[in-house]
Amino acid sequence: MSARPPVFRFAPSPNGRLHLGHAYSALLNAEMAGRMHGRLLVRIEDIDPTRCRPDLAEAMLADLRWLGLRFEEPVRRQSEHLATYAAALASLQARGLVYPCLCSRREIAQASIGRDPDGAPLYPGTCRGRADLAARLAAGTPHAWRLDMRAARAACPEPLCVHTADAAGTPGRRPAEPERWGDAVLGRKDVPTSYHLAVVLDDAAQGVTHVVRGQDLDAATDLHRLLQRLLGLPSPRYHHHALLRDPDGEKLAKSRGSPSLADLRAQGVTADDIRRRLGFA
């Protein structure tokens, strides 16, 4: 019996319009999927209720179709699977692997013990033994849920590795160091998950075998490998491609006002122009 085809996914967040960096990642996923006779999925990562909008999600899908991408329907939307994420978080709670955190961003910044790989303040574990924690939770104080990294590593003390693949699909591996993330947030105050928890659950649910995404998410993979081990999930192979940058050397980003695909289309740029510019003619 033949092996199942590899599964790739492109997973944007609808908090702005797609730009050339997104186009490169989407086209690379499509190119690798086609070359390896695999499947291409699109997932809308819209767990952030304050920044993500349905109209932007639809605009993203329209942009991808304009680029000529063909992906399977229906498209998975994270906002439709919050119960799944909550159940996984509850399982970690039952095993004592997460704890509630009441701290504000200001409190975390003031007490920080360093920086995580994204440059954010590293949480010092303030709420792990907080004396007033039970009373404040009983009073309904909003709280996040953080991974207890020490307990998590005790639960799976063996070395972890990230399974990799280069652009040609050649497999490899590298050591994973999830400890660099400290007690990362797995459940936000406003939704019962975080990017880290949702993404590993989604990849497993969709049978994703190859995760192709930007280099800026390479370090996050170490934490994802730990969560996969804790939750008994399979691990895809990861390929983290170089980021497109502007003339100042900064990566293209919606927050920096990088021109969107819609802007370029309005200027008369065609989908074929984009593909040639990005090396996918």
UniProtKB/TrEMBL annotation:
Keyword entries, A-Z: Aminoacyl-tRNA synthetase, ATP-binding, Ligase, Metal-binding, Nucleotide-binding, Protein biosynthesis, Zinc
One Gene Ontology term of the molecular function aspect: ligase activity
Source organism, top-level taxon: Bacteria
Matches recorded under Pfam families: tRNA-synt_1c (PF00749)
Domain Glutamyl/glutaminyl-tRNA synthetase class Ib catalytic stretches: 9-260
InterPro entries for the chain: aa-tRNA-synth_I_CS, Glu/Gln-tRNA-synth, Glu/Gln-tRNA-synth_Ib_cat-dom, GluQ/Sye, Rossmann-like_a/b/a_fold
Family, similarity comment: Belongs to the class-I aminoacyl-tRNA synthetase family.
NCBIfam families noted in UniProt: PRK05710.1-4
Protein name per the record: Glutamate--tRNA ligase
Organism listed in the record: Methylobacterium isbiliense
